[in-house]
Amino acid sequence: MRLRGGMIDPTWIPYRMRTITSANQSSARKLLGISITAALSSDLSSVNKFNTTINLPSQRVNTTHVEMSNVPSVAWHGSCLVGIRALFRSQCAVQSSANSIARHLRRCWTQQQLSYSSLGYQQTWKSTRPTSHTVPRLSNALSRIRFASSAGKQQKEHGVPLDSQPLSAAEIKAIFRSSTVTPEMGNRILSVIHGRRLAGTLDQDLPSDITRAVRSKTIENGLRWLRANHPLDEDAAILARIEREEKEEEERLLRYVKEMGPQSGHWGAQLGEGNDIYGRSTFQEKRKVNEARLLAEQEKKRKEWLEGEMKDREKIQKQLKGNTELQKYNPSAVVEARPRADPRERPFLAWAQKHYIRAENTDTDFTSMTTARRILPALGVTLLVLGLCYFYAETYQPPAYGTRMWRDIPPAAATILGIIATNVSVWMLWKIPPAWRMLNRYFISVPLYPYAMSVVGSIFSHQQFKHLLTNTVILWLIGLRLHDEIGRGNFLSLYLSSGVIGSFVSLTSHVLLQRLTVTSLGASGAIAGLVAAWCMLHSDDKLVPSFLPNEWRNYLSANGSTVLLAIVAFEIFNLVSPFKVVGKLDNYAHLGGYFAGAVWAALYKSKGERERQRKRNEQRGFLERFGSM
Fold first, then answer.
1. What angle do CA 502, 503, 507 make, to 5 degrees?
2. The Peptidase S54 rhomboid domain covers which part of the protein (predicted)?
């Protein structure tokens, strides 16, 4: 420790010595100067080279020579638990010095009030800032028990009453020597000041309601009256206050050290993970907080997910009670409420179930949906598609060879491969749970809650590979020949229009028959239209399967109209028979496709016949005109 220029180095002063004096810095410096000098004189009394004197007003320590090593300084700073208490308990000389400290503080406080009163200040209970060095003002235990706080709500200080009965107005006037002090305010001032005397806190600011209402001189009159009529040892109260604050600070530091545990190289910082001397990582702490928050959210969603099964069952029962047609079927066939998987035990299954439930339309009130509401929107889309197909067939122009994308592939094969690729893509989407919501709306026909655009999307939709493979083989065998015969424009128009008509016929039939839980999808209606068109275009030709031997073809051949009639008869038999020859076939969609293909073929043949008749008439007219010449 060094005494620089006769002044006490404030950085050497222990923390507790600095914190107990934050309310009155001027008095604190007098206190610290006396206590430190007394401690030095008592501890170093055997050393003759120290000749120290004290000058209280200037707070200077005149020294002939002071030179100490850094070891005592480190000891002082390293442990804040050795402070004024140890000095007061060390020797009798130090105790007598401490008593003089308290008396000096009380005298300084009185002198300050008198000087403030003479200057006419309204804010009386504040000390002036010294002209010498400034002791750092730190937060301490006293700041936690202040009665008045400028930062928050003030807690009213009542003090200690002098007697059970308050003083009268005449007594208050005689004590304060002023007629402006009311009995209530006078008794309050006396109680507060008396409480400050008992607590040793006369150096603190009085409550603002007192300082605003009464002048400082009037308050000093009350203090003189208290000292004259209610004497007490104010020095002992100040010492008790110092002891109390020092004890509280020690306890606070002990609690702080106990809570902090081992510290890193930085002051007040705990060791990091693995006893890292650089302390705790703020990033890791934030990360742990975020992870805990995410885990809590996931646990909340997990509980909601597991508890939602009962809500789904209640919703199903409510819908069944409101719709008599749905009561004919098993509730699980309408909207399944399967036991839900725990996301922790079976995460993939729970993930798939969430998308399965999300894809279901459970928010629509099926009881209020009428038959017309289910059919008319789909009818509008069907008519629109038929109009667009007719326009496309009439205006289509085959691209030139140089502008084709796949020049080495025949046009018929390119068209069929494009349709097959579209069907395969939609089939693959059915394997992806997040796509189920979109597919359930636009790629499957559901009479219970139909979407109008599903009559178009269901043409390209397959859920089972066997179904997709069967339709693909028939499309390839029939489509190539038919495409080469009628062209791309007519082929695509026939395919799409036959599929839309087949889907609409299926939807309408199931709605009218109240089979609301039957769903339909697939390209069977469109392919049925292609088969019917091929048979009707070759109604008078002998059709023979290409895989039959030549000797069998004369016996197993039939014209196109006969083949189509046999196929339609089989579909009708499978539809009306109680014993299904082939199960899970949408016979209504097939019959609608056959009807659309046959009608289209008849119109196409009629148009071709008219075109040929027109050409014959033109040629005949040309020959007649040429002969007349």
1. 120
2. 454-604
455 — phi, psi (to 5°)?
Answer: -70, -20
Q: Which residues contact 535 (CB under 8 A, 6 or more apart)?
A: 543, 560, 561, 563, 564, 567, 598, 601
- Beta carbons of 441 and 428 less than 8 angstroms apart: no
pLDDT tens per residue, range 267-308:
556 677 777 766 677 888 899 999 999 999 988 888 887 777
Name which residue leads in pLDDT, 137 or 319.
319
Asked whether residue 619 carries a pLDDT value surpassing 50, the answer given is yes
CA angle 154, 159, 163 (to 5 degrees): 150
Segments in 44-91 forming alpha helices (H): 70-78, 84-90
Q: Name residues whose C-beta falls within 8 Å of residue 390's C-beta, 6 or more positions apart in sequence.
A: 493
Query: Is 561 in the active site?
Result: no
In the chain the domains, ranked by start, together with CATH numbers, are: 1-120 (no CATH), 282-359 (no CATH), 371-539+588-621 (1.20.1540.10)
| Interatomic CA distance for residues 394 and 388, integer angstroms | 10
How does DSSP classify residue 168?
P
CA nearest neighbour of 454 among 414, 532, 510? 510
Give the model's confidence band at 362: pLDDT under 50 very low, under 70 low, under 90 confident, else very high: low
Catalytic residue, chosen from 115, 524, 538, 577, is: 524
Residue 271 parent element (H or E): none
pLDDT for 46: 37
Strand partners, 53: 62
The closest alpha carbon to 449, from 437, 462, 440, 460, belongs to 440
The reported pLDDT for the residue numbered 239 is 92
Residues sharing a CB contact under 8 Å with residue 85, sequence separation 6 or more, in sequence order = 243, 246, 247
Q: Tokens 């969430």 correspond to what residue?
A: 354
Residue 93: closest CA among 101, 83, 103, 81:
101
Unique residue bearing structure tokens 């059970």: 164
Cα 339 → chain centroid: 28
> Does 462 participate in catalysis according to the annotation?
no
Nearest by Cα to 329 from 518, 193, 142: 518
Distance of CA 522 to the CA centre of its chain: 41
Please state, for a pLDDT cut of 70, what percent of the chain lies above it.
66
* Residue 200 token pair: 């040793």
The one catalytic residue in 462, 467, 538, 590 is: 590
Record the tokens describing residue 142, joined without a space.
């006293």
Task: Give phi and psi for 302, each to the nearest 5.
Answer: -65, -45
